[in-house]
Design a protein that fits this description.
The complex is a heterodimer of chains A (467) and B (546).
Chain A (H helix, E strand, L loop, with lengths): L21 H6 L5 H5 L4 H11 L11 H6 L9 E6 L8 H8 L1 H15 L3 E6 L4 H16 L15 E6 L9 H8 L23 E5 H19 L2 E2 L12 E2 L1 E8 L5 E6 L4 H7 L9 E5 L19 H6 L8 E6 L4 H15 L5 H18 L7 H12 E2 L4 E2 L5 H15 L1 H10 L7 H4 L9 H7 L8
Chain B lengths: L1 E5 L2 E5 L5 H7 L23 E5 L11 E2 L10 E3 L3 H16 L15 H9 L16 E4 L2 E3 L9 H8 L7 E3 L6 E3 L12 H6 L5 E3 L12 E6 L8 E7 L2 E7 L12 H4 L2 H4 L9 E4 L2 E4 L2 H15 L4 E6 L4 H15 L4 E4 L8 E3 L2 E3 L7 H8 L8 H7 L3 E5 L9 H8 L3 E6 L11 E4 L8 E4 L4 E5 L12 H11 L9 H11 L8 H4 L4 E2 L12 H9 L2
Parallel strand pairs in B: 1-5, 16-17, 16-20, 20-21, 21-22
Antiparallel strand pairs in B: 1-2, 3-4, 3-5, 6-7, 7-10, 8-9, 11-12, 12-13, 14-15, 14-22, 18-19, 23-24, 24-25
Helix pairs in contact in B: 1-16, 2-3, 9-10, 9-13, 9-14
Classes of the chains: A alpha/beta (467), B alpha+beta (546).
């Protein structure tokens, strides 16, 4: 087994000075996919993306090619929304694309729009990304000036306009239909689905919402083909994880928290949490890991016992968590997990759009119980209450929810997983009536008691090597 | 029709209904807050959850479906009472109750509150919420509407109403998440003519009518079906009364007339109907004053005045606020008892144009029965201007008014002052009674039976909510006695006998019986009345729209 190393594809040349300009971008091979793009039939391109195994990097991990195949061909106009709202705590890879390699997003948008017969694209940018927006706006201007956008893209009989829109600071506007509502000038409140955006989205027209990172993958697939793309990442050969190429490509893992060198690491999909932590210089000061959130704050937390799980879609799903946005948050032994959870739930209570009952009232309720435990006001039974209240927003065990959008499960996942996996620490707070941070071994619920990954590991063959 | 299976029983229900409506049709209550059949369904309250099996599918959907946004289709299977559904509903309720003040003892909605009803029927027996309750302050949103913010379940019905029906979008959500609140923009209150409807729409006691506030517990109210008098649209209403006093007026569903709504002009009518200034006994002029007199005085003086002036010189003025029956009785009184052809129609001044909202139109003619007057008195008589011509030619007049706040121009006052004798039937002191020699207490629409004919030529029935005030008598009765004083016999024994007389003698009304008119009216000339449908929105209204 070779030592995992960075493989920069999307982030290649990210640090080259002035990479955000069209000139430098082109010097480094930028926009080269367009030559191939326009020689291919859109329907072949959809098949190619499907074949590549590319899955959405924004959170849900839905097959991009599949999503594209749902877009009706005969309805005009259609829209593309590039989702650059990147607000999931622990996630910051889109941001560097906007700030340092904005043309790669434009190139991805051109590829997607040509493939889908779309002539208007919006980029919904998180409001706080001021530099990112300035850089992207400038890049779009350059692209127009260089004939890559406008009435005739690259001299072809294909028109495309890109507009940017800055969000006003709401996490929920990253949810695809919340984004669409916001873009239409309304309150950022997710819509009921169906209808899905691919059928009725922006201005009630077919709309593809795609994460920035997902879009940035597309030009490479167009350029080098699906077969090449499938050589990246992990294809399992064990039946439980299936043998389909669904964990292909590289992933921009954002690693933050208590590691020596936090940052974005681009590697082929499939290295383990432990390996990634090592790549990021290990836990600070040689401390022990206490908890790792593998896919943005909404993903169920991992205990140290689970950190050998490969960070890919399939393995994380089997470990009853998710790759989500690829935001890895590492917490070392100094962390009080009750405090960590309270902090997260404060975020969710602040960000719930509040339109549906279970989430509007359940999220602050969950937060309040956690906070009470943290502050020493916990009563016996409160951990179960916490789990029960969270599960009533969205039930993590049956994977069902009574909410309009999956924000509901984004709240109950961390709430229930923290409470179950660090139950001893929660109970200690209640017992002692104050905040107590237990050593790792005492804080964690014994592995046989609650969590999936060690059992999965026992079932599947060892993690395949990945050279 | 669609064949669907609900809770194991197969039903045929109308096509295109939502699951909430279809269930109501067959008598199953699907609890809900945000849904209203005429507004877009945001499916935000998460109360109407059902287990749904799509037509042809092998089993139910994994996630529960919202009955408000799901339309029935042939072969669909709906279960209302699986353990999952029950748990989910109860959990949504618990969530709503978490911050609810439960101030039912002082809440006007208590007794007709969907939070009480659904919690009683579908909720947990204990609440587990042990954290701090939010206590946002009560807000004055407009002249007629207050928001008890703590009671709001954030269903956004009210906001959607202002978007879709009144169209001014004055109500909206502010803030986010648990801090969501309904509010108005600073300086822009809810002050449209449909504002009272948001109080009806509010499923809980959050939006309150400043008019009805603390006036009566709803369970003490008795109700009768009636028709609004404030314009020629004739909105179907329910008059709610207690101890002989009308205390609240609410719209009643009629899809062909007013839908679920009514306007505030009619809604706040109880102010004049129940005003302490209403006339309760006949009055006779003594110098500058009007003093109480007996009924025999009234009839003697009318008979005397008619004889003195000579019947043909006496004008008899009917009112566009009178029922068809009253108009008919007054017309007969004029021609057969007074023997005059000087007949006119008093009407309330109208607006220049209809008041049009995206989802509701208030008609410009401010009289409930001008259409009836046209048919019963004739086109010319029913013209606005005809009355003054008639009065100028008369020496004496008997005017039926009943129009609240009727205004008189200087010319009109001069014309009336020139008369040798003026008797006025009215419901309160007015510009007319100020000029009268005899004032006869009349009845408002809440005090009599009868029918109006609206601008669609739809004959609609009102029902007396309570007796006339004091010693007042209903207009047909007054006409009968006045005719008797003029030695003319009308064999009227009750309202029905007047109706029968009207129908027998006025071709336009041929065949119109109370059965034909029914609860929702009958358009004249539309042939045989069809049986009234009770499906869809009517089934919904019966179950949820009290
Ligand atoms: C609460 C919530 C927040 C989300 N925030 C983001 C976000 O900031 N950026 C993003 O790309 N996707 C976000 N998503 C996922 C989007 O709904 C959507 O699935 C995604 O943009 C689709 O793009 P992809 O298929 O390329 O991943 C969020 C989803 C939820 C439920
Ligand atoms: S689940 Fe939460 S965030 Fe999503 S629509 Fe409902 S209230 Fe809004
Ligand atoms: S809204 Fe309903 S539950 Fe709430 S206080 Fe009023 S009556 Fe009680
Ligand atoms: S005020 Fe009433 S109608 Fe409006 S959102 Fe609140 S509960 Fe619903
Ligand atoms: S009535 Fe269906 S969700 Fe509110």
């Amino acid at each position: 087994m070779g030592k995992p190393k960075e493989l920069r594809i999307l982030y290649e040349h990210l640090d080259v000075p002035d990479m955000h300009t069209i000139e430098v971008y082109r010097q480094h091979g930028g926009y080269s996919s367009l030559d191939k793009l326009f020689t291919q039939e859109p329907s072949d391109l959809v098949d190619m993306i499907k074949d590549s195994g590319l899955r959405g990097r924004g959170g849900a991990g839905f097959s991009t090619g599949m999503k594209w195949s749902f877009v009706p061909k005969d309805i005009e106009p259609k829209y593309l929304c590039a989702n650059a709202d990147e607000s999931e705590p622990g996630t910051f890879s889109n941001r560097y694309v906007l700030e340092r390699k904005p043309h790669s997003l434009i190139e991805g948008i051109i590829c997607a729009c040509w493939t889908l017969g779309i002539h208007t694209a919006y980029v919904y940018i998180r409001g706080e990304f001021t530099l990112g927006k300035v850089r992207l706006d400038a890049a779009i201007e350059e692209a127009y000036a260089n004939g890559l956008l406008g009435k005739s893209v690259a001299g072809k009989d294909f028109a495309l306009d890109i507009y940017t829109h800055a969000g006003a600071g709401a996490y929920i506007c990253g949810e695809e239909t919340g984004l669409i509502e916001s873009l239409e000038g309304k309150r950022g409140q997710p819509r009921n689905k169906p209808p899905f955006p691919a059928v009725q989205g922006l201005f009630m027209k077919p709309t593809v919402v795609q994460n920035v990172e997902t879009l940035c993958n597309v030009p490479f697939i167009v350029n080098k083909g699906a077969e090449w793309y499938k050589t990246l990442g992990t294809v399992y050969s064990d039946p439980p994880r299936g043998t389909d190429p669904v964990n292909t490509g590289t992933k921009l893992y954002c690693i933050s928290g208590h590691v020596e060198k936090p940052g974005v690491y681009e590697v082929e999909m499939g290295l383990t949490a432990n390996e990634l932590i090592e790549m990021a210089g290990g836990v600070r000061g040689g401390n022990r890991v206490k908890a790792v959130i593998p896919g943005g704050s909404s993903a169920p937390v991992l205990t140290p016992y689970e950190c050998d799980v490969p960070l890919d879609f399939t393995s994380l799903q089997m470990a009853k968590t998710m790759l989500g946005s690829g935001g890895i948050i590492v917490m070392d032994e100094t962390v009080c997990t009750v405090h960590a959870l309270t902090n997260l739930l404060d975020f969710y209570a602040h960000e719930s759009c509040g339109q549906c009952t279970p989430c509007r009232n359940g999220t602050p309720w969950t937060r309040d119980v956690a906070k009470r435990i943290e502050q020493g006001g916990g009563k016996p039974g409160d951990v179960d209450r916490l789990i029960e209240v969270a599960n009533s927003i969205a039930n993590v065990d049956t994977f069902t929810w009574n909410t309009i959008c999956v924000f509901g499960i984004a709240v109950s996942w961390p709430a229930v997983s923290f409470a179950r996996k660090f139950r001893p620490e929660f109970e200690a707070h209640i017992r002692e009536g104050k905040c107590v941070t237990l050593p790792v071994d005492e804080a964690v619920t014994p592995p046989e008691e609650n969590y999936a990954w060690p059992q999965v590991l026992a079932e599947v063959a060892q993690k395949p090597s990945w050279d | 029709m669609a064949k669907i299976t609900m809770d194991g029983i197969e039903y045929e229900v109308s096509d295109g209904l939502t699951v909430v409506q279809a269930s109501a049709e067959v008598g199953i209550t699907v609890p809900h807050y945000c849904y209203h059949p005429t507004l877009p369904a945001p499916a935000n309250c998460r109360m109407c959850l059902v287990e749904l099996t799509l037509p042809g599918a092998p089993g139910p959907l994994r996630q529960l479906a919202t009955g408000c946004s799901t339309r029935v289709a042939d072969g669909m299977v709906v279960n209302h009472e699986t353990p999952t559904v029950q748990a989910a509903r109860a959990s949504s309720l618990e969530s709503l109750l978490a911050h609810h003040p439960l101030d039912c003892p002082t809440c006007d909605q208590a007794g007709e509150c969907e939070l009480q009803n659904f919690a009683h029927k579908f909720g947990h027996d204990v609440g587990n919420y042990a954290e701090t309750k939010k206590t946002p302050p009560r807000k004055h949103l407009g002249p007629n509407v207050d928001l008890f913010t703590t009671r709001c379940v954030v269903c956004t019905r009210c906001a959607r109403f202002t978007e879709e029906v009144s169209g001014d979008a004055v109500l909206s959500l502010v803030n986010r998440g648990g801090k969501n609140e309904i509010d108005v923009y600073p300086g822009i209150p809810i002050d449209n003519k449909l504002s009272g409807s948001v109080v009806d729409l509010c499923p809980v006691g959050a939006l309150s009518s400043t008019d009805f506030m603390y006036r009566s517990r709803p369970w003490f109210l008795e109700e009768v079906d009636s028709v609004c008098t404030r314009c020629s649209k004739g909105c179907n209403i329910t008059v709610e009364h207690r101890d002989g006093e009308t205390v609240r007026i609410k719209p009643r569903l009629n899809e062909d007339v007013n839908g679920f709504w009514m306007c505030d002009d009619g809604r706040y009518d109880c102010d004049y109907v129940s005003s302490p200034d209403r006339l309760r006994m006949p009055l006779a002029r003594e110098g500058d004053d009007l003093v109480a007199c007996g009924w025999s005085d009234v009839f003697d003086r009318i008979a005397g005045a008619v004889q003195a002036a000579g019947g043909e010189n006496v004008a008899v003025i009917a009112s566009a606020w009178s029922t068809n029956e009253e108009l008919h009785a007054v017309r007969r009184f004029a021609t057969e008892a007074v023997h005059t052809s000087l007949i006119g129609l008093l009407s309330a001044a109208g607006d220049d144009e209809d008041t049009v909202y995206p989802g509701f139109t208030i008609e410009k003619d401010k009289n409930p029965n001008r259409a009836g007057a046209r048919l019963i008195l004739g086109e010319e008589v029913a013209q606005d201007s005809a009355i003054w011509e008639v009065l100028r030619r008369a020496n004496a007049a008997i005017i039926f008014s009943g129009i609240p706040d009727a205004e008189l121009s200087d010319d009109a006052v001069a014309t009336l002052a020139a008369l040798g004798f003026l008797a006025v039937v009215d419901v309160g002191t007015s510009a007319l009674t100020a000029l009268a020699d005899i004032v006869i207490p009349g009845t408002t629409y809440t005090e009599k039976d009868g029918c109006f004919t609206n601008s669609q030529q739809r004959v609609q029935k009102l029902n007396a909510a309570h007796r006339p005030l004091g010693t007042a008598m209903r207009e047909w009765e007054f006409v009968r006695y006045a005719a008797e004083a003029l030695e003319t016999e009308f064999d009227y024994t009750d309202e029905a006998s007047v109706t029968a007389d009207l129908v027998a003698s006025t071709p336009a009304f041929a065949g119109v019986t109370l059965e034909v008119v029914g609860e929702r009216g009958h358009v004249l000339g539309s042939g045989e009345a069809e049986p009234e449908t009770n499906d869809g929105n009517y089934a919904y209204a019966r179950m949820f729209w009290k």
